[in-house]
Amino acid sequence: MTVADETGAAEPPAVPHPGPAAGPPERRPGEADPAAEQGTGRDAILRAARRAFALRPYADVTMRGIAADAGVSPSLIVKRFGSKEHLFNTVADFGPAADELFAAEPAGLGRHLVLTTVRMRREQRGDPLLRVVFSLGNEDERTLLRERFRHQVTERLAASLPGPDAELRAELIAGQLLGLGATLSLHRPGAGDRATPERLADLYAPGLQRLIDGD
Amino acid sequence: MTVADETGAAEPPAVPHPGPAAGPPERRPGEADPAAEQGTGRDAILRAARRAFALRPYADVTMRGIAADAGVSPSLIVKRFGSKEHLFNTVADFGPAADELFAAEPAGLGRHLVLTTVRMRREQRGDPLLRVVFSLGNEDERTLLRERFRHQVTERLAASLPGPDAELRAELIAGQLLGLGATLSLHRPGAGDRATPERLADLYAPGLQRLIDGD
Questions:
Q1: Which of A163, B67, B111, B124 sits at a 20 to 30 Å CA gap from B98?
Q2: How many CB atoms lie within 10 A of CB B69?
């Protein structure tokens, strides 16, 4: 198990392979072979970036280090992602995961949240939200990750909840989702690992739904 | 907020201050002043050890580094805690926290779990269980932390649960507790921060209790 596996968020689809009309990109002497990087480079960079930002203070993360970990040239990262800040913002984006998680009517949202979390974990070998827990306890720029989580996940959810104490209930719903991911990662192999998504939803969704309904 | 704040487990009481009959401990030239270390040394060492084991691979943690962080001499750590392995096992002990968390009859356990988690967080400035999430995604000796969590928390809980799927339900209960700690740490300041323990229990305990009851 690697940090990348644990912390992978939902990713937008990889950049499509360019057709023959696109022509080969310009290549400088000493650069890594673009043809070799084309297929896997983007995913490898994102994985390496998540690992780097999860394990080290923001200030200690270097594009060179990410490039070495990803097996690509530093210039390829700059070309595809721009600055370190931009790369951080790319891997710290909970928006696509939130789009999938919250795509259900309130009456069925609890079950949808469990099924979507489990599906994303199993299909993408990464949890959509769990990455944020690695930022707990750090004073450095990784507070950006927490801010973004609050904005993209908790506040968005709170705005959609009817009833009293929406902010508090949204925090607790987010907590149950983080807890589901944490326990599935922690107990591996384990009973949660072997359970069907439907069985997990039967057990775990009612508590979520109660917080969603707020009564 | 520091990692130590986040990850502090319940600690046994500090070693009592020795009375006059105990006599002063032997002191070698160049050692830190034992009188200065007496009151705060043990807690400082435990905090530094938790921080070190949470942030670095086990193999990279040194007694010298922990000593420097704690502001004590390396020899004091060896005298009080023995080897690095022993120190790790001390800070990785979820037993005292589990004793407090599980000290309730099944019918009221959900509420007791929430109230105890919130009380331990507020009184001790640390979460009783959350530390284990920092071990996720690591291949190194910190797997010991996960093994201990499974044994001291999840398996102990599973053994006490009536009804079917006790192992799975215990994993999900542990998940909800980890999620509660994670969300309270993440949203700080936040609504969960400001809520009374009783209000948090009103909202969060029913989902836990349903998993405890298993029906």
A1: B67
A2: 16
Q: A134: distance to nearest CA of chain B, Å?
A: 6
**Residues 6 or more apart from A187 whose CB is under 8 A from it?**
A193, B150, B154, B171, B174
φ, ψ dihedrals at B30, nearest 5°:
90, -10
CA distance A182 to A176: 10
pTM to 2 decimals? Answer: 0.75
ipTM of the complex model: 0.74
- Tokens found for residue A77: 């990262």
pLDDT tens by residue, A108-130: 999 999 999 999 999 877 788 98
The alpha carbons of chain B give a radius of gyration, in whole angstroms, of 19
Please check whether residue B144 touches A, CB under 8 A. Answer: no
The token pair that represents A19 in the structure block: 């057709």
Report DSSP state, residue A154: I
B1 contacts A168? CB cut-off 8 A: no
Residue A41 near residue A74 (C-beta atoms within 8 A) = no
Nearest residue in chain A measured CA to CA from B214: A203
Q: Which of B134, B179, B210 sits opposite A176 (nearest CB)?
A: B179
What residues contact A174, with CB distance under 8 A and at least 6 apart? A129, A149, A153, A154, A157, B183, B186, B187
